[in-house]
Design goal:
Elements lengths: L18 H7 L7 H5 L3 H4 L2 H6 L5 H11 L3 E2 L20 H22 L3 H22 L19 H20 L19 H18 L5 H13 L12 E4 L6 H8 L4 E2 L1 H9 L5 H4 L29 H4 L14 E5 L1 H13 L8 H16 L4 H6 L34 H15 L5 H10 L32 H6 L1 H9 L24
Antiparallel strand pairs: 1-3, 2-4
Helix pairs in contact: 6-7, 7-8, 8-9, 9-10, 9-15, 15-16, 15-18, 16-18, 18-19
Amino acid sequence: MKKIVIALVTLIAFAACTDNFIETNQNPYQISDELLKQDFNLVGSPFSNMIFNLNGHQIEEDLCSDNWMGYMGTPTDFVGNVNNTTYYIRWNTYWNRVYGSVMSPSKQVIQLAKDNNLPMFATWAKLIRIFAVSKLTGVHGPVIYSQYGTTANSIAYDKESDLYPLFFKQLDSIQTDFNANKEYTGYKKFDPSQYGGSIPRWQKLVNSLRLRLAMRISKVDPAMAKTQGEKALADPAGLITTNADNFINSLNGNKIPVAQICYEWDDTRMGAVMESFLVGLKDGRISKYFAPMTNAALYADHPSVPYKGVRNGAYIKAKADHVPFSKVSEDFQTVQTRRNFTAAEVAFLKAEAGLRGWTGAGDPKTNYEEGIKLSFADWGAGGVDAYLADATSKPISYVDPIDARNNFTAASTITVAWNNADSNELKLEKIITQKYLNTFTNTQEAWVDFRRTGYPKIPPVAKNDSNGDWGVITANEWIKRMPFVNAERTGNTAAVADAVSKMGTGAKDDIATRLWWDTGKAANF
């Protein structure tokens, strides 16, 4: 399998010499400590790479949450068609990305910021840490966080129920620092996002992240969730409410992974679940996400809409069979940024918060419709007013013209139009489904929402290869988590055993063990 090679942060060469020696003998190709101190380079340069590594590539995303949630489907029969997409774990590397490319350099930044009296850079690094580890814990459950950097032979994992209060406490401290330094401009040169180093814009991300994490624990600890969610909603710094304030970061000159995997390697295609929702609901975003096809025989089940996707966990006989299916839109060929948090997501979070009775959330219908409008505008799609008014169109069942074993009947029967007479459960299904459709190219949080709420309603994998090696997922069920990485299993064995015990009675380090906030309860209210 081809994998993108991501450059890690260049190690800083330290030279301690007399001033005169530096002036006369400085290697012109070596960056000295003194030169790096200019304009805060010493602590600022790692941020571009740390933020870049908040997201993964083919084996962390495309062959995991992209496929599990039906955004994309692989036409390639990797490892004899027994792999992550069919619930037999072959690749498990997001852990290494977070610890090697976020946690490790952030530790150095925090120390350098302390040594050089640049505390605001330590604050920024701590925020990036929370963002990264909050994603990582959504993959594995317990993770190494509060004890990270210790030199003990066995490094303990944090229990999930301890992690979230710690995240919230640290977000409090970060926001306090930001409030006291709103005019600070030290980040500007190093900020790879569209925020341009603006502290007030980063403050909106802090509140939005707090709201996301509060909602994540809303079923397992509703009191804490409500307290933290209402704090985010009430904070004067505000939330991400316009597309201009979306958290979009640079890929440092790299093409967005889904385009590379699709166009250069032919290893991913449109997902059948997305076909079911986008075609069925007459969604104008379909042409912004995917490229139309020319072979009408492949989309004969809806001949006026020229798109066809690959089933999640599909039966794949030969790569050539499904390669003709829909690629992502050609527009992605020139995209070198990633959406990490959008105003649409915040609107959908507020819509759900309204259903849950959180003060300051606003009207669920207003927020739901605003989320859809923001999403359509963000993706450049038209027809949003007709879409919002559509009370008849529903997701369609899926037909694979190559292999009927991949067919499925649509489980969801929702329409787009809001109806105040609907139950809260049905309203939540609509909110999460639209949140799902907006979150294309940033699919890990959709996997969290699915495990947390059961929405959107998607089919199980067509081909289930789970077994005792990595855990058994029973028929009509879905993967719950990723196991801890093998390096931890063999090199931090006692801590891994302790981490598994922290996941509850009967827990195993397998793909069938639920995370703390995944209560397994079908009812959300």
